[in-house]
What we know:
Blueprint lengths: L5 H13 L7 E3 L3 H9 L5 E3 L2 H5 L6 E4 L6 H10 L3 E5 L6 H14 L3 E4 L6 H8 L4 E11 L16 H17 L4 E9 L2 E10 L5 E7 L1 E12 L3 E5 L10 H14 L8 H20 L1
Parallel strand pairs: 1-2, 3-4, 4-5, 6-9
Antiparallel strand pairs: 6-10, 7-8, 8-9, 10-11
Helix pairs in contact: 1-8, 4-5, 5-9, 7-9
Amino acid sequence: MLGAAGIASGAVLPAITASRNGRVVAIASRDPGRARNFAAAHPGSKAADTYEALLADPEIDAVYIPLVNSVHKEWTLRALAADKHVLCEKPLAMNAAEAEEMAVAAKSARKLLMEAFMYRFHPRTLRFVNELLDPMYVQASFGFTVKEASDFRLQAQLGGGALLDVGCYGVSVARWILGEPSNVLARSRMGGGVDMTTSALLQFPGGQTAAVWASFESPEEQSLTVVAREDVYRLDRPFSSREEVDEYQVMVESFAESILLDRPAPIPLTESIANMSVLDQIKEAAAKS
């Protein structure tokens, strides 16, 4: 693991430890003491002095990157160059151009690179999407309050903003259900150089539409509604549920299985690039409004 982020300690590291086909080998952090604390909590793992030292470790097959958005590309490229497979936190990159560069590097290195969109692995989400018939409209919301001004999510230079952090989920699920949009409209409320709330309307070639809403200034809100011709379907907490199973564990096991069996990634890079492209379009449309 490159970086001692909260998502790693609270979700991904326990998922790897519990998985049937992976183990935590080493942890690196800008703060060596923090890395040692993380390693102590996962017996059998060790703390690396630097990111570079971790990447140079021949015992490591794959790297999980939970770093801030602005350095996803840099450390993914460095990990691939060090002959490691990479599981990178969402969003994969800052924009589609970066994602394409990362995909080229992965192909050249003959290594697996996958975006860590854990919600796509949850059995109830898979059932929900697969059972839809003739969907006409998708409404996806994800919001919460960011309370600390120092939070990296509020730092523009670190790739902050509600659209990239949580809007990426809404765009992903809308595209999963309806395909690729043909037109994008959007509005954002900015604060401190980042979008605090973004609303987007996506139109699809068949006439279907989707509304995506992301916010850093709302009460906790997660919902997915799909209006189909025969019924209305709703899924509560569609993007972070551990009901039935741990979606993070299913994700890391699927990623590891793809490496061990030399199979394509469960979430292909073409999907991640396409999602980044729509996020780019939303950002551009909001900037023009």
